[in-house]
Structures are given as C-alpha cells and as structure tokens.
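the three lines:
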Amino acid sequence: MKGKQYALLGLFLVSTLAAAKTPVVELEIRNHLFHPEEVRIPANTKVKLIVYNRDATPEEFESYELNREKVIMGGRKANIFIGPLKPGVYPFFGEFNPKTAQGRVVAE
Amino acid sequence: MNSIRTYLVIMLMAAFSLVSFLAALNGYLSSMAEAEKMLDTQLAEASDLLMLSWSGEAAEPSPNSSSDILVFQVWRDGDLLSASPGAPVAPIGDFSEGYRYGNFSGYRWLSYTRLAGDGTAYMVAERADLRHTVAEKVVLESVVPLLLWLPVSAVLVWLLVGWGLRPLHELSRQINTRRSDDLAPVTLDNPPVELLRLIDSTNSLLARLSAAFEREKHFAAHAAHELRTPLSVLKVHLHNLAEELPADEPALIHANAGVERMHHLVEQVLDLSRTNPELIVANFQDVDLHSLAQRITAEAWPQFAEKNLGLSLEGDEAILRGDPALLETLLGNLLDNARKYTPAGGEVRVVVERRPNAVRLLVEDSGPGIPTGARERVFERFYRSVSEEGNGVVGAGLGLAIVRHIVEVHKARIELGESDLGGLAVRIDLPLADNRG
Amino acid sequence: MLINSVILVLREVLEAAIVVSVLLAVSRNLRLSTRWLLASLPVTAIFILLFSSNLDAITDAFDGAGQEVVSAGLQIAVFAGIVGVVFITELQRSGHVGSLRPLPLLMAITVICAMIREGSEILIYITAFAASGENGAAVFAGSAIGGGIGISLGVLMFAALRAVSAELSARLCVFLMALIGAGMVMQSTMLLEQVDWLQPGRELWDSSALISEQSISGQLLYAVFGYEASPGLVQVLLYAISVVLVALAWVLPHHFAGVRDAH
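prediction for all of em together
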C-alpha cells in the first residue's frame, strides 16, 4: 500500500517538471518493416515517437537499449517517449516479427 | 496434492521437459547457425557467379531473374550497369565488400557486395524473411515431435512411478487390512532398501506388542492361581480355629466373610481374564440355551431359596452356536447379580426366547433396578453403585464386565432395561448364524 | 522464428511462474490450503480475455498512455500484494495468532495481477500468427517450449523452496519477494517514463557489456528482479525504496512483538 503512494507522489512531482516542447518523430510499420528504418534525433533531448502500425496484425515495439516496449494492435498508433539520450545508436525491433522489423534511433 | 506419486510425477516432468527443451533449443540454435553460415556462403558464391557470368552487356536476362527471392545489381563508378528485373534502381548493398541488411521494395534483404579489381561492384541480395524458412522447417521437423511425445512420457512416468511405489502400497495395505488382533510380522517379498528399516521397526514394534499381550493374558490368570493356594491354606486354618472358639465369636465371622469375599474375587478375576475377547480362543459348538439355563437355574436354586426368592425359567429349546462354558459363566453371573440385589421375598425370572435371527436371553428381577444414567458404567471393571456400598452386598464389581466380555465374544447385543417385575431387565440377543471372526 | 517465440513467451511466463511458485511455497510453509491458486486461474483467464480484446480502448485511454498506466498499475498492485503477504506472514510468525485469514485472497489477487498483462501479450502474439498461417508451426512450437521452460523452472523452484528447512525457506521466500516486488516497481517506472508521466533522470550506469539484456542470463535476471542494463536515477531510487519497504514489512512485525514482550 505504501509503495503505491510513494510511486504516485513521485509521479506527480516529476510530471509537472516536464517541459511542453517535445520534438515529435513519426514512423510506420508496413509489411512488418519500419519506415523509416533509421530515425535521427537530437541527443540529450526528449523525443516523442509516434509509431503507426499499418499492418492488420499486431506488433510489439521493443528496444532493450531504449528500455521501451509497447504492443501496437493492427491499424493503430502508439506514442512512445524516448530520451534524453547520449549520442549513439539505439536499435529497436518489432518483437513479433524480429527478422524483418528492425530499426534504429541515432542520437546526434 | 500430498501424494508422493503426484509430487514425483510433477517434479520429474518439470525436470525432464526443462532439460529436453533446453537441449532442443540448443540443437535448434546450432542447426540454425550452421544453416546461416551456409546461406551466407551461398550468397557470396552467387555474387562470384554473377561476376564470372556477367559479360559486360547491359541488362542481361538471367535464368532466375524472375525470382523475387534473389535480386542482383552491377555497379561501376556510380552507374547501374545491369540489374535483375525485381531489383530497385537504388543500390541494394554497400560499395564495399561484405554483407549488409537493408529495406527496399517493401521487404528486408541481406545483400552481399563483391568488388572486382576494376572497381565494379557485384551486388546480390536475398529476402531476409524467407532465407531461414526452409532451414527452420527442417529443424522444426526434429523439434516438434519432442513436444508431441511429451504427453506419452508423462503417462510413462506416471505408470513407472506408480510401479516403483508398489512396495509402499503393499506395506500399507498389509498394515491396514490386518485384523486388530493379528500381530504377525509384516512380510514383503524382496523389500527395497528404503523400506527395510521401516519394516524392521514395524515388526519389532509388533513383536513387543504381541509379547505384552501375551504377558497380560497370563498375568491375571497366574496371579489368581497363585492367590488360590494361600487362600485355601487360610480357609483350613480358619476351620481349625473355629473348632477352638465359640461359634458366635465376631472376629471369626468377619474373618470367614472376608475370606469368602476374597475367594469370590479371585474366581472373578480368573473369569475376566479367561473371557477377554482379545485373547480368548472360544470353543464354539451347537448349544441348547434352554437346557443350559435349566441346569444353571437348578444349581442356583438352593441359594435363591435360602434368601426366600422366587426363581422361574420360561421358554423352549433354542439351539445356537456358542461356547457352553462361557454361556454358563454368563448366566451364572447374571443370576448371581439378580440374587444379590433383589430383596428377600422378591422374584427372578429367566426367559429363553427364539427370535428370527437370534436367541434372546432375558433375566429379570424385582429389585431396585439401575438408573438410566448408570447403565453404561455398570459394565466397567470394579464399578459399584453408591447405594450398594451400604447395603452389605458382597461383590467386586466384576460380574457385568465378565458378562460384557462373553457378549462380545459371541458378537451378541446386550441391553439393560426395566422389567415388568419392577426391577432390572437384562436382554441379550445371541445371533443364530455362526459369525465368528 | 522459433527462438523469438521462445524468448517472448519465456520472458512473460517465467515472471508469472516465479511469483506463483514463491507464493505457493509461502502458503505451503504456513500449512495453508493452496486452493486460492486454482480459484484464481479462471478469474485470470477472464481478465486476460478482457484485457487483450479491449487493448485498443485501453491504449487510447489517458491520452494514449492507457496501456502503460494500466500495466504499471497492475505491477504496483503486485508489489503492494507482495508487501502485504510479507507483512501478514511475519505478523503470524512473530506470534499474532489468527492473522492469516486475508492471506489466500491477497495471494490470489497478487497472482491475478501478475498474470493478466503477461497472459494478454502471449494471447495477442499467438492469435496474430494463428490467423496469418505462415510460421504457425514455429510460433506454436516456440511458445510451447518457452512456456514449458518457464513453468518447469517455476515448479523446480517451488520444489527447491520446499526442500530446504522451514526457516531457510521462509527467508528465501521473503528475499525473492523483495526482488520480484522491486523488479515490478522498476518495470512500472519504465512504462511511466515511456508515456512521459515520469522523468527518467540521468542514466546511472551501463552494464550491457557485462550482461546484455538480450542474453539468456539477462532475460532470467530481468524476470527474477527486473534487471536493467542501463537504469536511470529514478528507477534505481524507486528500486531501492521498494526493497526497503519489503524489508520493513519483514522486520516491523517482529519489532512490534519485541516491544510487546518487553512490557
């Protein structure tokens, strides 16, 4: 019970600090491929990724390097905030079709 | 849940499937790595083939160019010299030798670029999503049966564990189904090491129990026998003493009464130990309860007459299976009780009655009876009601305990009630069928 | 394809299996009936169906943050359940007789919360491929293997927890529950960062070179205590707070008992 309260408290504290100006990057999943395959974002900045799943089948956006995972049902979109990131390459993939759904975020 | 078998089956299956799945996964991974290496080599060889076969003419139709699984391009100095029909116009690979993954034409491809000495780049690309399909299919053929056969191994494990636990079942069956008085040792053919100690300790326990029963069986009898001799000696000396003393000497009367009481007690203890249902070896035969009752009542008659009590016997011949000596003791004890508790001038009645499945023996008196609350306790050894302490009745409280022993040996039912003579009615239903054991 | 299915399903199943086997060991240690597990399975199945069939609506709720918020809520509920289980167990062990009654219900709720999200993800994954037809055999075989490995590990862990002495078993259970609970909180912070409800803070370290999250050992560590190769400040703080909370739930009942005895 206590843990919940602490978590919620922390949550309100930090979300009020969040800046409103967040760059938005869009990408699509089509035929189990990410378009574009490579996303370039500024380093040390928080970025909002909007991922559209144009396939009929669900996909899970997953990245170990970015610590992100989210199921996107067929024909839907998902908002995923990433960063601020140090300069570097951060691969991501579609966990349901990892052979083809591969992409990377390049922070620079 | 608390079954050894269920526990073992679940644990064994968990361990078995964990190990076999990990092994299958290991096999799958190394097979796929092998296949990948082979596919990579094939792609590189395809680029060699392209380099050797391309003669420098533009857009040469290749026999497998219609395939959309494999595409190729030939570049020199940034110009696309030749390409398969399915290939895009943009380069499908890097301009340096090696493998590269990339997306084009709506698919993901693995490309290989071979650089010739003159700077010509020969690029071959293969669909990334399809290149493993065949290899995976082949590997799956060996993995899937493992899953399908798992239920079979579960059934086998279930049966085998059950089979392995059979000695345990056999042991508990032997202990469970034996009669309560059967103290023979447990025997198991070829017992497993794990059960040896259990069997040994069980058997040693049974042996000690059996020895204790044996001692108990003989102790009371031995004690009573040993008491008889000094008692007889005592009687003789009292008799001799009576010659020299006046007949109304109070000490002599008390001593005689005490010895008489002691004698009665010893006989009853002997009877009690003889009739113990757990120890007795009864001598069952056909007995006519009516003629047996005739004999006993005739023997008892003088004592009844002395106290001015009426004694009657009703009923006809009634044959049943029983031990005649025990039945005599039974009726004797009941008559003894009735005589003691019925005040002078009263009446005692014995009835032998044939019923559908039993012979009923009924002993009634016109005495004070037994209150309902005390009826169960009168069967206890050495039980004596409060009232009888005062009215000079001689007895040790063993009579009804002996009666109950004999009733149990005959698998009969005993019931205490009220008699229409005004006193106690003892009803005993002795079954007709021979149902010993 | 097979190996991807194995990893996906194993990751989800293992996490739930560990929660179930530890709670099962706790209730066996306390000689409680384990019927709560049987009773919670159909409820879980219903919630999994509801969750996965309404995932669209759930995702769109809270301005697109619904999926993460609900998942994080479930994970925090699992953590709260674990804290409650530890507290009640230790209360009983420190001599407050008769305090175990709410335990089966609490365990059932914890297990249900732990299985809903995992179960839904597996269900969505498998139904997607069952519909498409291609790769079906590989996905089914992979899911079966992943599920089998996860459940077997859970069963063997239960056996191990029951094989050791009662005292050691109780300590191990609390230790594992602290790790699992903190791992749950860790995952929920990640989900809340993902929808910008929580600021990640700076990255504290990067141990992916040591144990990569993709590796089998990384997956196992992730399942047991939410291993994160490159955690942020907030994550580590919340992780530490969670461990401390479980420790308090463990120690406080004995402390009370000690105070009471002293009077």
